[in-house]
Amino acid sequence: MDSNEPALQSLIERVREARRDGTPLCIRGGGTKDFYGETPAGAVLDTRELTGTSSYEPTELVVTTRCGTPLAELEALLAEHGQCLPFEPPRFASGGTVGGMIAAGLSGPSRPSVGSVRDHVLGATVLDGNGEVLSFGGQVIKNVAGYDVARLHAGALGTLGVVLDVSMKVLPMARANATLRFELDQASALAKVNAWAGLPLPLDASAWWDGNLLIRLRGAAAAVESAAVRLGGEPIDPAHAGPFWGGLRDHADDFFVRGRRVAERGGSLWRLGVPQTAPPLELDGDTLIEWHGGQRWLITSQNPVQVRGAVAAVGGHATLFRARTKTGGVFTPLTAPLDRIHRQLKQAFDPAGVFNPGRLYPDL
User: Is position 70 within any domain?
Assistant: First the structure.
């Protein structure tokens, strides 16, 4: 018998019992993302007993791992074979799990060049609100056909079910990288990265804050060296560049530390998704820009209506990432068609409303 079988059966029984009793469940792995989304509610359904990597084919660049597997454990396994999760999922604290990574759907600095968590999901096995185990997708790209149901669970914050295991594409670690720094104001930095993004350059990541633009080049050594010479700027020693990008990924650098402190005192840390070519936003506060202009972080005391209004004006959306109170809502309100789709999906996967009630939207 699979050593994980008792853990799986326990989860199934808990879900079926909760459905019978009408008891809401809060799906939780390491709890490192409890701050994200609306306030968690319900009895804890702990997934950490369901662990291990069931299939890994380094030559095929595919790994299948269970939801309770520590993210650090999976990344260490991949690193042994010179491979990685290229989308750089944030590790806000130790103890995060693969299931939490999928449920949150968050990606790190490399997102504009390699894609998001969702883009790397090939298949998943899910426990739905009826206590049934469902499988979607596969372990190779050619099996991902029809409705891409597995990827619906990336970013759903557990509202559609428990992701029991997931198959993902992985990639080899880059052979070479370089970080360059430029002193530029925000508007000039945005113009530069957008111009560079349209050129055949190994531009992997970018970050602007406080008058400094840093870009990371990744790829073949010859391509990285050539691009570094072409772009100029100040080369940053790898001993300093590595911790910088790691701090940006894990929200451990000065900007995000300050953001947490401001949020604890009544301010807010916002995650703004906008077109990469959007101009600087007319908002008060401190801004950090990633993803070649597409992701902008804002530390501010402005109210949600003002923030969302400014972001909507350029065709974007705003997420209240950290705040002491979330009365203004965490995620951008849905349009009527999108709201209907969300509710239909919730009804299909979790008809009794057992899983993570209100975690995405208070009435969902």
Answer: yes
Residues 260 and 236 in one domain: no
Average pLDDT for residues 322-346, to the nearest whole number?
95
Number of Cβ atoms within 10 Å of the Cβ of 44: 12
Using the structure block, give the residue that is written with the tokens 């030559």.
59
Return the bridge partners of 176, or none: 219
* Domain carrying residue 269: 254-323
Measured in whole angstroms, how far is the alpha carbon of residue 287 from the centre of its chain?
Answer: 19
**If pLDDT is split at 50, 70 and 90, which confidence band does 1 have?**
very low
183 & 94 share domain: no
Same domain, residue pair 79 and 218: no
Question: With contact defined as beta carbons under 8 Å apart, do 355 and 28 qualify?
Answer: no
250, 284, 315: which is the final residue of a domain? 250
Q: Both tokens of residue 281?
A: 């936003």
Q: Is the pTM of this model over 0.85?
A: yes
3-class DSSP state of 125: strand
Nearest to 205 by CA among 194, 192, 190, 218: 218
| Tokens (6 digits) for 245 | 């990008």
What share of the chain has pLDDT > 90, as a percent? 94
Domain for residue 123, yes or no?
A: yes
